Amino acid sequence: MARTKQCARKSGPRRSGDRGHRDREGARDKNPPQGERLNYPEIVKENEMFIKYYKSQGFVPEGEWSQFINSLQETLPVTFRLTGYKNESKELLKIIKNQYLDSLMSSHEEAETREPPKCLEWYPHGLAWQIDLSRKEIRNNERLRQLHNFLIAETETGNISRQEAVSMIPPLLMDIKPHHKVLDMCAAPGSKTGQLIESLHQNDSKDLPEGFVVANDSDNKRCYLMVHQVKRLQTPNCVIVNHDATVMPKMLAGNDDQEFIFYDRILCDVPCSGDGTLRKNPDAWMRWSTIQGCNLHSLQLKILKRGLELLADGGRLIYSTCSFNPVEDEAVVATMLAKCEGTVELIDVEGQLPGLKYSAGRHSWKCMSKDGNIFEKLEDVPDNLKGIHRPTMFPPSEKEASEMHLERCIRILPHLQNTGGFFVAVMEKKSCLPWCKPVESGKTDVSTEDKNLEQSTTANENKDLDEAMPVTANENESTKEIEIDSEPKESTETTKKRNHPTMEVRPNKRPRLAWGYKEDPFLFLDKDDPLWASVKGFYSVDDTFPQEQLMYRCETGAKRTLYFVSSSVRNLVETNKDRVKFINLGLKALVRKASPLVEKCDFRLTLEALSAIHHYFPGRKVQMSKEDIITFLSSDSPFISRFSNSVQDQCRSLDAGSAIFYFIPTESEPEPACEIMLCGWRGMTSLRSFINKPAREHYLRLCGMENSAIAELRANDEDGLIPKLSKRQARKQRRKERKQERREKGDTGTEEVLEEEDEKDEQLEKENEHDGLEQELIDNDVKTDNDVTKVEKELNSEEKVKNIEKEPNSAESVSEKGESEEG
Ligand SMILES: C[S@@+](CC[C@H](N)C(=O)[O-])C[C@H]1O[C@@H](n2cnc3c(N)ncnc32)[C@H](O)[C@@H]1O
């Protein structure tokens, strides 16, 4: 199996004890040992072998070669796209343009941008932008720093994705419809998964899409990175699963015929050597070698093969890498097309993204040994290197390449539109694959299907793929690990577990679930669970609410949090929980938190699932004007008397407790032109929002609050209206301050060193974002507790405030935060 499991961009400085190693050609690589980390100025953005190899391939015309190399040596511009659901993203775009982009466009020279910010013309609805500045430049320019901070804050709320331009391409070419079943085979950290989810929700309607997204990654930790990414998009239609994509298990559809699910759309964004990301990862110049691609080729083939097996007839699969190397690109595609014998075709995507510039896929290419010997065909490879340069890495004949239409693949070259490098092939499955003949009359019996797949996976049929496997001592283990075909082969241990109840209790340890992963079970609420009667009564929940789509997760069966999933996801989980390692799914909808003020129901609504479920909860809703929303969000527990008469009237007929507070644009108040749904608490005399800091600022921005006012609000936030920094955030803040001090003292290496450290911190931060979010939720819960105490206080001071309420004007004269008066 390949040594590198993901893109080279992920590999950082080497760890202690890792002192470089011999590759299969016996040469020692150039990675510096620990303690000799190279700083950016020492990195030479050149590589003789890189130049030799890619010059020989011919996909960069001779006259463009220096532009190609020059652009690879420059830093990548900042790109971002507005995510999510249409109306809100349009509103946010208006704000970004008014407050930042327009002025940058008119005075870009003064702002020191190399080019004015520009809209990526091939990205739909003008929602993706590129600013030709490095992150460092943004941080060092006060005016641009504000934009940078804005982008960070809105990324946290899920309304912006700071994503490389080329990485936005594959999801756009998938042509996803709301009813599609979508599989993302190598999904972490999930930037493309986010786009897949958005496409599924493209209708922006209150009805949830029928389809779903299954986001898979073999790396358990990276799966948790994805949890945060996906949560920001607030979808009940996505599940995160943790499998080796080469043996990705089939899921049952849950119908009487025991059919398997075949996906309408599949993304194979495979692990790759990643030389298309050299602009972002300059240290990869030093490490570059053709061997990286050779090492990954067989893994890439197997992932693509499994993807095609799981694809429905008529379905579309995208194969993509961020590598220029034909061994990882065209060679993988051509090998699979040949194996599929015409049942799979490359789709011509010309014109699907108008304005996108690319170079067409190659019909022929060359392989190269580590020391620069070029091999045009397999016969050129000396015997001692035949374990590395495998038959499937070489091009087919010109006739076969033309019949396959390899020119329909697209290779993005960095100098064409100032981007990173990328490769995409769009395939359509026309009919059943030759080695997976359909079982009689469309019915599929699980055991028969499993057998069928096993039988068809004969040594002969996979000979070409087997040959792709480099045979070295190191890799024997991993070769054993990846069976090429069929359902995952269970270990004896796993089979033992499967034949026993789903839980295995280990002495003195927390019970572990079967399949060796530690997730709590995913349990759905019973139809007649008494808990639901209390929720339904308190919130006057509509009878049409699909209560069976509420899920809880606890080994003991305690129901503290109810998560909401779509009906398709419920079915998927219920039917496949013994076959599939589900890591995460569902939106936090209701959280148990008793209050002395609310006897009837212990559950409170949370923001996460609000957009999916609010229309089923008509009983506890308060419509607000824009001004009301600003009041609601910009002070801590404002008295009800501070809101409009309409809000006061609505509150009169609403008992204390959790409630939904919302804005909808009307003729008299058309701005902002999108709905705002918030949740909070109706106290005896005041209202309180339950929302985290970035989301609060986002909605205030949508309601027209200026940045300076938001900054002031933040500065005056003595009483914790905006949650205090979590420990992790505080640590990050300290790190930043330390760096700033060092910068000022000038006792450090160079700006580039600091820049590199910043990037690393950012990466670390991203990896910990999931924990950060949990922290924020805890903060919210703490706030909720405080709220109960506060409400008790309110009860005591109720009489006093009633008097104030009788005279609305005098309420204004009470300080903004009623509690301080109470204290
Ligand atoms: C290029 S990255 C994917 C980037 C991702 N699609 C995105 O847009 O954020 C490749 C991913 O493949 C995962 N991976 C590597 N080997 C795998 C395997 N055998 N099965 C599934 N995922 C694998 C890595 O953990 C890594 O997260």
Task: List the SSEs and their pairings.
Blueprint: H1 48-57, H2 65-73, E1 78-82, H3 86-106, E2 118-119, E3 128-131, H4 135-140, H5 142-156, E4 160-161, H6 169-173, E5 181-184, H7 191-200, E6 212-216, H8 220-231, E7 238-241, E8 263-269, H9 284-287, H10 290-310, E9 311-321, H11 330-340, E10 344-346, E11 359-360, E12 367-368, E13 374-375, H12 398-404, E14 410-412, H13 414-417, E15 422-429, H14 446-456, H15 463-468, H16 473-481, H17 492-498, E16 503-504, E17 512-513, E18 523-524, H18 530-539, E19 550-552, E20 561-564, H19 567-576, E21 582-585, E22 587-592, E23 603-605, H20 610-613, E24 621-623, H21 626-634, H22 645-652, E25 657-663, E26 676-682, E27 687-689, H23 693-702, H24 707-715, H25 727-745, H26 751-767, H27 769-806, H28 808-813, H29 818-822
Parallel strand pairs: 5-6, 5-8, 6-7, 8-9, 24-25
Antiparallel strand pairs: 1-3, 1-4, 2-3, 7-21, 9-15, 10-15, 11-14, 12-13, 14-15, 16-17, 18-19, 19-20, 20-22, 22-23, 25-26, 26-27
Helix pairs in contact: 10-11, 21-23, 25-26
The total count of strands amounts to 27
Overall mean pLDDT stands at 78
List the ligand species. Answer: S-adenosylmethionine
What is the number of helical segments per DSSP (H or I, 4+ residues)?
29
CATH topology of the domain at 166-185 and 248-471: Rossmann fold
Largest sheet: 10 strands, mixed
What overall geometry do the principal axes of the alpha carbons give?
Answer: globular
> Strand fraction band?
5-15%
Low-pLDDT windows of residues: 1-37, 441-464, 467-516, 719-725, 766-823
Structural class: alpha+beta
Give the class-level CATH name of the domain at 166-185 and 248-471. Alpha Beta
- How far apart are the termini? 67 Å
Under the CATH scheme, the architecture of the domain at 166-185 and 248-471 is: 3-Layer(aba) Sandwich
Q: Please tell me how large the radius of gyration is.
A: 29 Å
Helical proportion, percent range:
25-40%
